[in-house]
Structures are given as C-alpha cells and as structure tokens.
What does this fold into?
Amino acid sequence: MKRVFLIVLDSVGIGAMEDAAEFGDEGTNTLKSAAKGSCFHMPNMEQLGLFNIDGVDWKEGIVSPGAVYGRMREASKGKDTTIGHWEIAGVISKEPLPIYPDGFPEEILAPFSQMTGRGILCNRPYSGTEVIKEFGDEHVKTGKLIVYTSADSVFQIAAHEDVVPVETLYEYCRIARELLCGKHGVGRVIARPFTGESGNYQRTSGRHDYSLEPPAQTMLDVIKKAGKEVIGVGKIRDIFAGRGITSYVYTNGNTDGIEKTIAYLEEDFEGLCFVNLVDYDMLYGHRNDIEGYARALAEFDTALPRIMGKLREEDVLMITADHGCDPGYVVSTDHSREHTPFLIYGKNIKPVNLGTRDTFADIGATVLKLLGIEGNISGQSVL
It folds into this structure.
C-alpha cells in the first residue's frame, strides 16, 4: 500500500530567485531571516539535509544527510499560493494572474455591490490586519464590506461576524468568484471574518478561499482517476477548487494541521495526503514577525520525529514550500519570489543531492512515479 505525504510549509522560501528583482524581491531569504529568531531550532530538518541545499550558504550542512534534498525554481510567472501549489501539482502558469494595485474596477464592484446589497470600503492593496484597524469602525457602523487586495491575485472581503454572519460572508465570496472570471479571473477570493471591539479587532480562523480551477490536469486529477485517494489537509481543497480531491479536512492553524496529518498516518489508504501548513505565511511572514516565524518552524521540526516515526515501509514523506514571505524584508509584507526547499524521506529512499531543479512540477511528477501512475502533467520525476 503506497502512500505519499506531501507537506507544504507555506511561504518557507530559501532565497531569492534569479528574477526576483522583477517582482520587487531582490535579496529576500525567508528561512535566513527566520533563523535570526531567538527560538529558531531545526535539528531534525538539518539531519534530513535542509542546510545542504544549494544556496543555503549561511549555515553549514551536515556530512551525511538522511533524505533526498534539493532547491526548486518556480517556472510559473507568479509568487502566490495558487500558482505555487498548481505548479507543485504539475501545472506551469506562463501568464501571471491579474493583480489590482489601483483597486478593482467598477465593472466588478458595481454588480457585486448590487448583488450583495452592501456598499464597499477601501478597495486598494492593504495589510489584512491594518485594513480592519482603519476601516473596521466604519464597517460596523454602516455594514459596508471591506474589500481589499495585495500584491497577489486576490479579492479579499473582511467583515465583522456580528455584522455579517460567516455563512453570509461565504455567500458573498461565492458571488464575487462568479463575477471574477475571464480577464478578471483572480487566483483567489478570500473570506476574512473578524471579531472584537473598536481598537481591538482580531481576524478569526474562519478564513475561506475560493480559487479558480486549475487550467490543466494536475497530479490530483491523475491520482483520483487512477482510483486512489487524494486527501487534502488545510486549505488544499480550496486551492484546487475541490478538483481532484477525494476527501479533505480543514485545520485551525499549524498545530492542528500537524496533528491531523499524524492522524492520517495511522489510517489505511493508498494515494496522496497533501498538507498545507499556513501559519508561517498568514501569521508571521506578512506581519514581519521573525520571532513568530522562528517559533513556528521550531514547532514543526519538533513534531517531525513523530511524523517520521509513523511512516510505514513503503511510505514517502515530502517537504517543500510554495513561495517565500520574508519576515525580515521591511520593503514589503507581501510574498517573495524565492526558491523553495524539497526534501524526500522514506525507508527505501536513498539520499542524494538534487542540485537545483527548474520547476516545482518535478514534485508532482515524482509523486506520480512513486505511486506507480502515469499522467500527462508538466515536470520530470527526480527519482
């Protein structure tokens, strides 16, 4: 019974890509910045070969890494969650998804406001925590929706749970998703509920993403068509708009995601368990919180022996990321165009240095090879 556990440490980049300057990200290095945190400690990832990867020259590697290790280059034109995960799954996006540095046009906002019956606040790029500080009071007073974006291809709607019930907010997001198509087909529409009082508004765990469907076949589609399981943990189902998923579970942060992954390690299934741990990005990278980022990495590293200890004879564990979000890069709080790490561990996997691979899609191709499935996706297996 072959099982692959693919864990995406959301935003844990390992250094700027060659074209990072084109994205405003020259010199970014998420892992290096996080390592400046006082509680940074990753001895288990170190033993797998994390610090032996190409370009990780700020910390000495070990003599005999315990895993296959390599650096991944993104072939797609982007640096966001959707594009990154799609490429991991075998879809390379040559054209970037639309972004809105000047806010969304009236051709989108007018019908959205009419269909929801609510006015619009903000409508420009904004930090998610700052936008509710600035517009939260007016939203609570008027009932108008806080609509904002970022450097990524996203349409985000923030609303207080006492003003707009969460299920109603989700319905508004579904309306926006239907409107945002064609040339305005943003990667994700995101619900951002919050609670609290004036001066102390707090985002909740009720975030929900409504993604575009991938434009081509992914490894998830191939695995599902082959009659095997594709289990999504965290926001995986949302990223792929549910396509190719056979079962899924949402998570309430990294700790919950780790525990739910361990629970799946104890279940009998054949196929892929695809995990996204989002706290690095959502809670720490975007907030330039080096200490928080370091603490979250240390938490995962501490849990790693439990995960590895439950792997069966034919199981394979993969660890990677989807982009960067450098907590030490004060020029921006947005995602960064970075290389990502790739580690493969299993009882039957022989450690080797992969060097630098030209596309995240090699990950998806490797998953298919390990599961003994042929499928038409981008990328080449590294094994």
In short: The two ends are 19 Å apart (CA to CA).
